[in-house]
Amino acid sequence: MRKAAMTVVLIGAVALLGACNKSGSSTDTSASSSSPAGAAPSSGPTPEQAKAILATLPAPYNTADIENGQAKFAVCSSCHTLTAGGSDMTGPNLHGVLTRKGGTETGYSYSDAMKTAAPAWDAPTLDKWIENPRGMIPGTKMSYIGMHDPKDRIDLVAYLAVATATPK
Ligand code: HEC
Questions:
Q1: CB 56 within 8 Å of CB 45
Q2: Does the Cβ of 116 fall within 6 Å of ligand 1?
């Protein structure tokens, strides 16, 4: 129950962010400057937080289309959850993935190949992984074949950064 509610909140935040980005302004001073005290949900980023997280990413991820990224995540969602405390499925829960090294989620049984490679999951590294997991880490047990469209990967990486962050 609670997880479903959190997902809805997150999708709402991300949808709003997408709407913001479509307005095309890169310098905003007035558009989304404040949120009323107490309005922030207890989990998942608000649209302001999502925007701030996006801005911390290197180009081109910082201007990516989060809504498209969310749509592209559908192919990953049969094996991965994103929210804090989400369960491990075939693949590990990805909450906080951009702040950890590969193969270090406690309680998940990784391949030896992943534990040995232990990549630092920053945006470009995730991009490379999503393009061709077994090309990047031969012997990984992630059986996903790879995503070929570079723009879809950029959008997906940016969505992952926002959706797996712990809002401050
Ligand atoms: C068929 C199931 C499956 C699908 C689909 C899948 N994954 Fe995975 N994923 C795994 C498994 C299994 C691992 C563990 C790999 C290992 O230990 O070698 C993994 C590992 C990862 C990791 C490393 C996590 C860590 O803690 O180091 C990331 C990041 C990741 N997947 C992202 C994605 C993304 C993004 C997609 C969609 C494009 C995706 N995965 C699709 C099964 C899957």
A1: no
A2: no
By CB atoms closer than 10 A (0-12, 13-18, 19+), residue 68 is: middle
Residue 98 in contact with ligand 1 by CB distance below 6 A: no
Cis geometry, peptide bond prior to residue 60 (ω within 30 degrees of 0): yes
The rounded Å distance from CA 15 to ligand 1 centre is 24
44 CB-side CA count, 13 A: 22
Q: Is the CB of 71 under 6 A from ligand 1?
A: no
Separation between Cα atoms, residue 84 and residue 166, nearest integer Å: 8
pLDDT digits (tens, 9 = 90+) for 111-159: 999 999 999 999 999 999 999 999 999 999 999 999 999 999 999 999 9
Q: Ligand 1 test: best mutation among 109, 144, 156, most atoms within 8 Å of CB? A: 144
Distance of CA 110 to the CA centre of its chain: 20
Whole-number Å distance between alpha carbons of 11 and 144: 24
